[in-house]
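User: What would this chain look like folded?
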Amino acid sequence: GEYFHHNRFNIELSSWMFISLLWYYQIYKCFEKMRKVITAGNKTDIDVLACAVAYKNILNLLWEDAVISVSNEFGWTVPKFIFERWFGLDKVNIENDDEIIIVDLSHPDYINKNVNQDNIIEIRDHHPWFENYRKEKIWNKSIIEPIWACATLIYEQAKKLGLVAKLEKYSIDLLMTAILSNTLNFKAQITKERDILAYDELRKISTLPTNWTEIYFRGVWKNLVENSKEALINDTKILELGWKPVVIWQIELRESRDFMIENKELIEDIMTAYGNKNRVYTSPSISEWVNYIFTKSDFVKKLFSEILWTKFDGDIWTTDKLWLRKEIWKDLM
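Assistant: Here's the prediction, encoded as structure tokens.
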């Protein structure tokens, strides 16, 4: 009887310990922080790169487990010396239980195909479309502001949390460069005071050379000249107007006239290969404060003439001020 009583006690003790451990494990799992993965679409431009890098930096400073999973196909706004001077992207695969943060994007069709969109916990973007999708999917988890650079939003978040002084040097440099790029060196029509303020404050703490604007845009030009066809193919947007979709290519440069003239045949070939007859190429020329626009579509000519208050002379047209595609898009919508 004593042997049986002793073994019964051991069994009950073991059962109690097992149940206790299971209980503690369940409590741990309830409070365990899921990994946050910062991602975007199928291409990485300078704004995506800056936002992903800096936001990971911010979350890590808050002791969050955050990683980056963006495309290693860099757009032409990311010159080679930009990603060579940085430490590289995280090599991670998106898992089913990851919490997803999207930066500089909110179009559901363009979000990273490896993302389960039900796992999106946050979107930080500056494109004022797809509000219904965002409300349906993530409700109040979207941070969408009508400013010119998503990088400005990320900087403002760091400032709000008092973390600007703790940001890594490369986060500061990338945020500053993305704002510079997205605002076309502050010549875009609807550049916001918030963009200017963010840039000025970042410029004060950045260690980049004083002629960084010239260095950056020269690098963009070199990148574009060396990869003209790829740049044009990858910078394609379709504007769904309901009755007729319009395909818009955009290449913004410090001086864009020569590039368009020298590559007119290539531009036309790429536009023709796309199939849609309602197609247009627009190239903001930053130093001249104008756009060079090329289209053979009568429909597009009429549409753009109504929006931009001017008339085409043949197939090429020079605007009287600088227009970005997203500004034209906004007016057409």
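The chain has 13 helices and ten strands. If you want, I can go into more detail on any region.
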